[in-house]
Amino acid sequence: MTSSTEPYDLAVIGGGINGCGIARDAAGRGLKVLLCEQSDLASGTSSASTKLIHGGLRYLEHYEFRLVQESLSERERLWALAPHIVWPMRFVLPHNEELRPAWLIRLGLFLYDHIGGRKLLPGSHMVDLTKDVAGDVLRDDFRRGFEYSDCWVEDSRMVVLNAMDAAERGADVRVRTGVTSVSRQDKSWRLTLTNHETGQTETADAKVIVNAAGPWVAQVAQSSIGMNSKSDIRLVKGSHIVVPKIFDHERSYIFQNADKRIIFAIPYQTNFTLIGTTDVEVDDLADGKKISNGEIDYLCDAASEYFKKPIQPADVVWTYAGVRPLYDDGGGDAQQVTRDFVLERHGPSDGPALLNVFGGKLTTYRRLAEDVLEKLDDCFPEAGKPWTDSAALPGGDFPTQGFENLCETYYASYPWAPETLLHRLTRAYGTCVSDILDGASSMDDLGQHFGHDLYEREIEYLKQKEWARTAEDVLWRRSKLGLFLTPDEQTTLTDWMKAKHVEPV
Question: Which of 227, 184, 177 is nearest to 202 (CA)?
Fold first, then answer.
């Protein structure tokens, strides 16, 4: 067993959106940071979201006005920080008179338009579904609706970009590295780290631990740190289905259901429609890894209440599920449990402190990270001030509304590459596209072709800069190209990745 000689200020356990956001914020304030993720970045809940940066329109019904306001204020900010992976999306809500009165929806949308500091996103308005193209695929009894704005995000890429920026600012990012035990020293914690790829172990000391393990937060607190949390979490599974494209326009739908829940139907990866999500309480994390047949039926039936052409389970081409670690606020049904976060701190400023992170949502991860550092400010009196509200994530250093202009720049710079490939790369990497393509002058220079528009040069970038180790990392978290590669092509990539494993720089 080896030992790290220089202690860390902060050790973050968990490589999801909260852990990576906290590591980035802390590193940018000058702290020496260690981030440990037992698997791949975003391998849990953070890659299983509905992929929205949104205020949560339905949270207004539960009177969570502060959460909605804070979330809405983050929409345009995150769009500005990462305009390659975040972009505006319009949502159409067909009005079902039996579920909610029109005046209540108008009131909710009025609040949604005005309490979050909206500047660039267009506001809400009524939609005549008998004339608007959005009504063409809906059942004829839906004659009017409402339209409003939120944003879309490539969730797992948001996680990776935060980790990249943390590393660029000095953080030590360890993937596939578990914290197997923690012991209290005089003024610090001693962590035992196990690399799951090599089996090697080492120890590292840190003044403060932040437990941002998501659904595993209580398990890590108890089994690794040996401390029972004072707070409880509720494990709520959210599942999604992907079906062949249902509609051709770029807007999404939000559907009200008789059980008072809502689901979304969203354009996805050009050729598909994403439908979700469910809210199913689970007792065991193992139960949250896979969608159930009942959930598939639920989503198909709920969407079929609105679309003219019913959705059948046989239409489903892909599914995913994740467990939300929601703070137990004593709410009733799973859908009523708060999506807000709670921070629980143990320990004095002059000794080893521990902070557990409960709950939270993708949209407010940056604010959560700021609150974590504020709650620990007495531990790090010389740390810098908040800074993440205006610092672009890697690849996002171009104007908020300048994505198409950036694409045009790459079309001119790399005329030998198909525009469809360049558009996809720009969506994924923004201004970092040049790190992948510079030096190439033809498609042959991109190396081995693995199917669709995936080439060796992109994979090398993902391995060296984004900690990708396996075909799954590449196809389902760094991208969604798994929807397009055949099983044989995926096997070829799997074998190639095993043979060409390279440590990230």
Answer: 177
Residue type for position 14? G
**In the block, residue with structure tokens 């994740």:** 322
Give φ, ψ of 481 to 5 degrees: -70, -10
- Asked if residues 90 and 252 have their Cβ atoms less than 8 Å apart, the reply is yes
Q: How far is CA 418 from the centre of its chain?
A: 29
The amino acid at 332: G
Question: How far separated are the first and last CA of the chain, in Å rounded?
Answer: 23
Token output for 228: 């029972």
Bridge partners (DSSP) of residue 255 are: 263
The model's pLDDT over 198-215, given as tens digits with 9 standing for 90+, comes to 999 999 999 999 999 999
Locus of tokens 């400023």? 349
The closest of 198, 197, 167, 194 to 34, measured between CA atoms, is 167
Strand 272-276 to strand 189-195: parallel, antiparallel, or no bridges (unpaired)? Answer: unpaired
Which DSSP string do the residues of 131-186 spell out, in sequence order?
TSGGGTTB-TT--EEEEEEEEEE-HHHHHHHHHHHHHHTT-EEESSEEEEEEEE-S
What residue has token string 């029972």? 228
- 42 Cβ partners below 8 Å, 6+ apart? 15, 16, 17, 155, 156, 159, 160, 477
Q: Which two tokens stand for residue 13?
A: 């356990």
Residue in the block written with tokens 């943390």: 166
Put simply, whether the predicted model's pTM sits higher than 0.70 gets the answer yes
Q: Which stretch of DSSP H or E encloses residue 324? A: strand 318-327
- Angstrom distance (rounded) from CA 54 to CA 107: 18
| Cβ-based neighbours of 492, under 8 Å, separated by 6 or more | 450, 451
Chain Cα centroid distance, residue 138: 30
pLDDT digits (tens, 9 = 90+) for 263-296: 999 999 999 999 999 999 998 888 888 999 999 9
User: By the 8 A CB rule, do 177 and 193 touch?
Assistant: yes
Q: What burial class does residue 14 get, using C-beta atoms within 10 Å of its C-beta: 0-12 exposed, 13-18 middle, 19+ buried?
A: buried
If residue 430 lies in a helix (H) or strand (E), which one and from where to where? Answer: none
Which residue shows structure tokens 């209290």? 184
**Secondary structure letter of residue 221 according to DSSP:** I
